[in-house]
Amino acid sequence: MSLRFEPDVRARLRSALMTRGRMLATVLSEVLAGKQSPTIESLLAARPGKRPEEVVREALDQIEARRRLLDDDDDRFGRCDVCGTDLGEPALGEMAWADRCAKHALQV
Q: Which member of 61, 65, 66, 76 has the greatest number of CB atoms within 10 A?
């Protein structure tokens, strides 16, 4: 069985996912404590009408789902959830938690 990503690439992607997850966990704790994190503004803009904690929890769920796919060497990691297009290693290097191509990025 061949791996979709080389071990060093997988390690970098996993590290990026974990870093993003830690950042979001910090934001969630701030939101639950009644603080308004600067990071939450951009997250809320993408999901109008939702409570801040809902938005952050959804983002954390996305990170966890992507991490599981990567750890399982599931071919869906690094592909658009809508059309299956390969997002490419450079794009994943920028945003390892990406789950949509540019065409479908705004669809929820």
A: 66
C-alpha distance from residue 86 to each of 7, 71, 93 (Å): 18, 18, 13
Tell me the sheet residues that pair with 86.
Answer: 79
- Please answer whether residues 94 and 55 qualify as being in contact, where contact means their C-beta atoms are separated by less than 8 angstroms: no
* Dist. CA 3–CA 20, nearest whole Å: 24
First to last CA, the chain: 33
**Using one digit for the tens of pLDDT, what is the confidence trace for 91-103?**
999 999 999 999 9
pTM of this structure: 0.85
